[in-house]
Write a structure and sequence with these properties.
The protein has one domain: 3-Layer(aba) Sandwich (Rossmann fold), CATH 3.40.50. The model has no long low-confidence stretch (mean pLDDT 95). Helices cover 43% and strands 12% of the residues. It is built from seven helices and five strands. Helix 6 links the parallel strand 4 and strand 5.
Length: 167
């Protein structure tokens, strides 16, 4: 079983709520969240629930109507038993700065709201990949991530390249 971190946009795309995502990307995202629900992959979260809070702001905990919503409902029911939880340490009480985030000038401009995903990857003993669907800004930092031992799995490769070129 592979441990993974899921960027919120993967679940949003799985819900069909990302107009920039191709049908193939939607299918890929549905497959990846369903792998977690079926127990084929293990979700990694922070024990402060920063990632869960972001999911709850962007998905419906009723579990309907999309695969991303089913993922959130599954998570709420199983977070304590089916997920790996890691501790991340906020810097000076910040919601977007963490001791576990690499101290690398090449990452200084990385989106503060997404730093929790990187911090969780760094805090986990396996350094699990972060699944990323359509946030093309992440591509700008891929070399710096790799240099810091962080793997971002761009699961919608064609879409993210197209979106990156458009921006």
């Amino acid at each position: 079983m592979m441990a993974v971190i899921v960027d919120t946009n993967v679940a949003v795309v799985a819900n069909g709520q990302s107009p920039q995502a191709s049908p193939n990307c939607v299918d890929t995202c549905i497959n990846r969240v369903e792998r977690i629900i079926r127990g084929e992959d293990k979700l990694v979260l922070d024990d402060m629930w920063a990632i869960l809070g972001e999911y709850m702001r962007n998905l419906r905990s009723s579990g309907e109507p999309g695969a991303g919503d089913r993922f959130l409902l599954w998570l709420l029911r199983n977070k304590d038993t089916q997920c790996d939880l890691v501790s991340i340490t906020p810097v000076n009480g910040s919601d977007n700065a963490f001791e576990e985030f690499p101290d690398d000038p090449a990452l200084d401009d990385f989106d503060p709201a997404d730093r929790k995903f990187i911090a969780v990857a760094c805090a986990h003993s396996e350094r699990p990949p972060i699944l990323q669907a359509v946030d093309s800004k992440w591509l700008d930092f891929d070399d710096a991530f790799r240099e810091n031992g962080i793997i971002v799995e761009f699961i919608c490769q064609e879409d993210i390249q197209r979106l990156h070129e458009e921006n």
